[in-house]
Amino acid sequence: MSINAKRLTAVVVGLGLAGTLAACGSSDGGQGSGDSKTVTLVSHDSWAVSKDVIAAFEKQSGYKVDVLKDGDAGQAVNKAILTKGNPQGDVFFGVDNTLLSRALDNGLFQPYEPKGSDTIKAEYRVDQDKHRVTPIDTGDICVNYDKKYFADHDLEPPKSFDDLVEPQYKNLLVTENASSSSPGLGFLLGTAAKYGDDGWETYWKKLKANGVKVVDGWEQAYNEEFSGSAGGKKAKGDRPLVVSYASSPPAEVVFADPRPSTAPTGVAEGTCFRQVEYAGLLANAENSKGGKALLDFLISKKFQEDMPLNMFVYPVTEGAQVPPEFVKYGPQAKDPQTVDPAKIADHRDQWVKSWTSLVLK
Question: What b/e sequence results for 303-321 when a residue is b if at least 16 CB atoms lie within 10 Å of its CB, and e otherwise?
């Protein structure tokens, strides 16, 4: 069984690790004029869209889309903030709920309410008084497990955060660095939501004592350390538990040749944290008119239904259908952990600092 590893990296919501898709195009019009026929999207590395879908937008709108991929989500957001006075593009895609306050507090976006915003599901809407960002997709950060490993060892896979600290799962889990990785941070936030301000550090002490391994990012964790992925098998990974996404199992099926009848990996549903990604019109965008048209497109049914098998995320609009592979192999968690964006804003830096001191030192 082989998987297109480059495409599989699109599983990462907010933590892209592929190469640049396209160079950033320069616009011809003046700042905010909207005269340019090129609109530039700045994104983390996991941006992906079907050629025919983006071509349909370009034909309908008259704008050519250039994409600048700028590293993982944290790196891309930080760079966008540093360059906000002279932005690299017109629209930024990929700031998630773990980083949203940083972007808004630094004035990264200007207000715009895209056409069709009324179709966005209520649970994903934020910033409704100013409309600086628009929800585009959602996904669940969860522990994945290698089905074969647990079958071979006659061991039930873990189902919850509590299970992960039990002796039978010692030295089995690999996770990402919460200070540098979006899924790593999401997993930390999930434990903070589950155990509260007074309990999450105690939980991580137990997890560390139980042999959790921390690596820099998702690519290393999933495609090198995890024994259940196609990449991990090739790399002889020896960790049968990994922090990844609920959409990772359908990705393993979709990119396998031949396709298996069942996914080789599963999801521990009691370990999931709900992530939402947003896009916004950059402050000082050179082509604001084109940027607005692109934001309209990102919440259109055509794009929303194209996302799942390209970026392995769920749509956020009413009526957008998901492919059968998602329904069968990667359903959304029924009761994921969530943290209010305002609380994330207030506590994120201290949580990460405490986690780093506790787990990495």
Answer: bbbbbbbbbbbbbbbeebe
